Amino acid sequence: MPRMACKMPENDHVMASLKGVSKRYGQGHTAFWALRDVDLEVRSGEFTLLMGPSGSGKTTLLSIVGCLLAPTEGTVEICGERADRLDERSLPRVRREKIGFVFQSFNLLGSLNALENVEVPFLICGRKRALARGKAQELLEAMGLRGKEGQLPEDLSGGEKQRVAIARALATEPRIVLADEPTAALDTRTGHQIMELLRERAHRGVAVMVVTHDVRLETLADRVVRLEDGRIVP
Fold first, then answer.
1. How many CA atoms within 13 Å lie on the side-chain side of 15?
2. β-pairing, 73-78 with 231-233?
């Protein structure tokens, strides 16, 4: 597969490709396979739900796509780059430049206000503070958080925290956004709004994959990938 320029938001490009991916945890008689022989493509412009019962391998699969875990077997390409061949010094670059993460528990820095939380990825990438502040402001406004910039996470509602987390995930213009149960701590209405925001970003050209147990959200998805016992099923 030719190497892609991941900063170009074009639809229907393969942003992540997994072939024959398996993941084993443990050794000896305690070893078990969390994933078995998974083939998967994650495309730009597509809003994908990853669903299945507890223990089916959803979070493991998401973590491998996000380069947080290495597969035991198989190949992983991120924007055309063989991530499974990279060493531990190179993987942070892939995660920083190409992947945005949204977590169930928000993972905001409690001592920083909303604006400062979104500025963090810009500053890590070496952007000047003035530019970082302007871009962070734009993202918060896009998330409907104008007027909330100076508030600490403890003063925000669950939905507002998740919107800040999404803004932070989008800060470096990633080609892939991965979300692990981002609505689990939210009420139904707020959760639906968060999923709408993620779907809107997908339809702007980002590849978005979300782990969820909520079958009511299936109607929002462009594609639903189902896992059972570590395998993709129809």
1. 34
2. unpaired
Count: domains in the chain: 1
Q: What is the mean pLDDT of each run of 10 residues along the chain (234 residues)?
A: 38 89 93 96 96 95 96 96 92 92 93 96 85 93 94 96 95 94 90 93 96 92 97 94
The domain that contains 204 carries what CATH number? 3.40.50.300
Residue in the block written with tokens 């104008």:
146
List, for residues 5-18, the tens digit of each pLDDT value: 334 344 569 999 99
Between CA 59 and CA 217, with CA 193 as vertex, the angle to 5 degrees is 50
Radius of gyration of the chain measured on its C-alpha atoms: 18
Output the six-digit token pair for 198.
């993620």
Please say whether the beta carbons of 186 and 194 come within 8 A: yes
The answer to whether residue 196 is domain-embedded is yes
**Which domain covers residue 217, as residue numbers?**
14-233
- Rounded CA separation 22/24 (Å): 7
Q: CA 8, CA 194: separation in Å to the nearest integer?
A: 25
Q: At what angle do helices 188-202 and 158-169 cross, to 10 degrees?
A: 10
What's the confidence (pLDDT) of residue 29? 87
> CB-based burial of residue 89 (10 Å sphere; 0-12 exposed, 13-18 middle, 19+ buried)?
exposed
Let me know: does 31 contact 2? Beta carbons within 8 Å. Answer: no
What's the CA gap between 38 and 139, in Å, rounded?
Answer: 35
What is the enclosing helix (H) or strand (E) of 51?
Answer: strand 47-51
CA–CA dist 57, 132 (Å, integer): 36
As a whole number of angstroms, the distance between CA 44 and CA 91 comes to: 21
